[in-house]
Structure formats: C-alpha cells, structure tokens
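RECORD TYPE: inverse folding
INPUT: structure tokens
STRUCTURE:
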C-alpha cells in the first residue's frame, strides 16, 4: 500500500511498479497494445455516467472557488466530450506504431552495420491541470508507445481524473496488461509534484501541461529531463494582400472558437496598409471579444487601450490585443519580441510574403491562411497529443507517439574488432 503521507516514498513505489510495467509493455506486439486501447475505449464509454457524476462534483467545487469561465470550460465534460475522448483513445490504436521503426541504417567500411531503431522512453511522468481528458489522452499515447505513465492531475479535476483513470485501467486489465502501466497520483498534495521532479533515474521524462506557474516550477525544480510547453501567446498577422472575408473568418475562429485552448489567438497584428482594419476588429468585438488596442488602432476606432503587459499575456479568455504594424517587417519584429514560440499565422494572398513569414517565424507551428486553433495533435493526424512542445530539442509542436520514443543504435557485425 503506497503511503500518501510520504510523497517521496509513494512516488518511488509508483515508479518502481511503472518500471516493471514498462518492461512488459516494451515486449508486447503492436496488436496487443492496440487491443488494450480498444478495451480502454469501451470501458470509458461504459463508464460515462460515473465520469459525468465525478465531473459534476468537480465543477461544483470549481464554481464555488470562483474559477474563470475559460477554466470551467476546460474542466467541463459532457456526453459529446466523453465520446470524443473515447474516440481519441481508439484513434491512437490505429496510428502507425513507432516502436521498432528503423530510422536509418549505415554500413561502415569495415562491414559493421549500424541501425537506429525507435524504442520507448520508459517511465513518463505527466503533470497537468484542468482538462480531465488529458488523463485518457496521455495514458493512450504512453501505452501505445510502450511507456508506463505516472499521471498527476490538478486538484480542480481530481474526481474526473480518478473516474477516467479507473475506466482506462479496467480496459487494460481486460486486455491482460498490467494496470501499473498507467498510475494516477492519488493525492493533491503539491509535495507529490516535487517528489516526481526529484525522481532522477526512476522517472525518465516529465511533461508539464498547464499554466505558466506550473511549467515554471517544473523547469526550475526538475532533476528529471523535461519536455515543456510554455504559454500559447499566438499571433495572427493580416497582411495588406489578405482577402477580407477570409481574414475575418480566420481571426474570429482563431480567437473565439474556444478561448481557453492553448492554440487560441491572443494578439492580432494588422498591416498598416490593410484596407479595413476597423472592420476586421469589429468582426471580433461583434463576436463578443474584448479588444485592447495600441495607439495606432485607437486613432481610428474606440477600443480599450493596451498596455505593455498585454503583448505578453495568454488571456485564455474572450480578450484580444490588437496592434497595427508596418507590413511584414513590423509583424516579424513584434512576433520576435512577444511570441512564446507556440503557433503563429499569416493571412495573405501574396505568396512571397507568406513564404517569408513561414521561413522566418521561429515557432513550433507556423500557418498560412489557417486558424491557429489547428494547433492540435488530432488535427495534425497524430491522434491525441500529450501537449505542444515549444522547445527546440527532442520533439517540437504536437507531441504524439513518435515524440514519446527515443532510439538506440543496433550494430550487426561479422567478427569486427577495433585496432
């Protein structure tokens, strides 16, 4: 029995069990792992009533605590979202299996054949906030990539996470897999997070998925390698050559489709030569968005003044900062100063301008004539995702199966010895 009063001992015990499960997962065939996910999908669908009841309890507590509308939206589950979550697990089961995939092969002059082969990372710790669907997404991706997972969700979704975890593990058990392959930290004590971050050698990789405070803490304290996702301070630049109807539709969707997701646009940049900047901004405000504008925008229409902090704020709400910039040069300069490296988009008919934007914006995802809300593993054809990595090492952009593997070198010789 794990002792929740001793977080270090509890995490050590969970990690040891996860390591044993990871060794078993690594030996399973692709079909065995796929079957386990299909059983998990069935179990999640069958547990819909239990999951909804647990989520209702979480929502009631969150509303009483005064969580924002955007945060409540992240937390909320309904029949459609549970069905989507289950379908996401099943989708992961259909994806190409990266485990055992040959990356490349070279034969050295001495005849030694060297091959790089994808293998599971091992034990992955995932620390996340708000969205209970991450429980199923993370579990499915880890299992399909041959990894064991230790999940630590936020206290605001504790009941929902536990219900989804129970269902997922019932599916694993039905398929004959060890339930220790996916474990949920059963305490909301923040010391458990510290114990995970200090578990060097026991946990192979930590992935934080949440707000700036969580990610900053993980990066500051971790002795375990971290795959980080920073703020989604995402920009849409509307160039002078943009089609007006297309620009208005993309801008509305990028901001207002779901304001609480990390792919939501937070800053709109409008070329000073664009024909109707006021009309574009009104398309946002008419959709219910509070606009905060720079001095150049305020000179042509009445909006709330933006301050210096607005350009570096991830609102996750129906709020957008808007700046008028001098063409592609102005847009590139603004993005270089303020982008978090997540997702940035350009709306333009001028191919040369768009190509320059795509080449020079150094973000994990860059888009041309498309909404930033496509920043999602499912939309990229990757199935569920573990998060959007904004760093430059190992994995970048939506992290799915391939991002949860590493590789090893396999050498095949015929008696070669080194002189």
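DESIGNED SEQUENCE:
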């Amino acid at each position: 029995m794990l002792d929740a009063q001793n977080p270090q001992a509890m995490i050590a015990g969970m990690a040891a069990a996860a390591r044993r499960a990871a060794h078993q997962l690594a030996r399973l065939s692709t079909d065995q792992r796929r079957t386990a996910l299909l059983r998990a999908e069935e179990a999640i669908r069958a547990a819909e009533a239990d999951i909804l009841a647990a989520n209702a309890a979480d929502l009631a507590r969150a509303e009483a605590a005064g969580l924002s509308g955007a945060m409540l939206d992240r937390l909320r589950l309904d029949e459609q979202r549970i069905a989507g979550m289950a379908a996401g697990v099943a989708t992961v089961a259909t994806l190409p299996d990266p485990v055992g995939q040959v990356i490349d092969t070279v034969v050295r002059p001495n005849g030694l054949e060297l091959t790089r082969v994808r293998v599971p990372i091992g034990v992955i710790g995932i620390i996340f906030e708000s969205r209970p669907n991450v429980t199923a997404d993370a579990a499915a991706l880890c299992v399909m990539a041959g990894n064991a997972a230790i999940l630590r969700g936020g206290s605001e979704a504790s009941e929902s996470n536990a219900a989804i975890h129970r269902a997922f593990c019932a599916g694993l058990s039905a398929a004959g897999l060890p339930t220790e392959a996916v474990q949920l930290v059963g305490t909301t004590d923040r010391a458990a997070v510290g114990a995970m971050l200090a578990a060097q050698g026991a946990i192979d990789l930590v992935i934080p998925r949440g707000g700036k405070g969580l990610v900053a803490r993980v990066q500051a304290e971790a002795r375990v390698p971290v795959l980080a996702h920073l703020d989604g301070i995402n920009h849409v630049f509307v160039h002078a050559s943009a089609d007006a109807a297309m620009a208005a539709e993309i801008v509305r969707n990028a901001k207002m489709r779901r304001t609480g997701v990390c792919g939501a646009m937070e800053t709109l940049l409008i070329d000073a030569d664009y024909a109707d900047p006021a009309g574009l901004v009104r398309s946002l405000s008419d959709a219910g968005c509070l606009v905060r504008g720079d001095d150049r925008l305020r000179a042509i229409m009445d909006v709330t003044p933006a301050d210096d902090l607005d350009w570096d704020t991830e609102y996750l709400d129906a709020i957008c900062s808007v700046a008028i910039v001098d063409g592609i040069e102005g847009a590139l300069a603004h993005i270089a100063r303020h982008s978090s490296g997540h997702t940035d988009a350009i709306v333009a008919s001028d191919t040369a301008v768009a190509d320059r934007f795509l080449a020079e914006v150094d973000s994990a995802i860059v888009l041309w004539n498309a909404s930033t809300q496509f920043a999602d593993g499912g939309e990229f054809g990757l199935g569920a995702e573990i998060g959007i990595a904004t760093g430059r090492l190992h994995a970048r952009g939506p992290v799915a199966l391939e991002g949860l593997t590493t590789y090893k070198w396999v050498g095949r010789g015929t008696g070669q010895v080194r002189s």
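NOTES: The chain has a mean pLDDT of 94.
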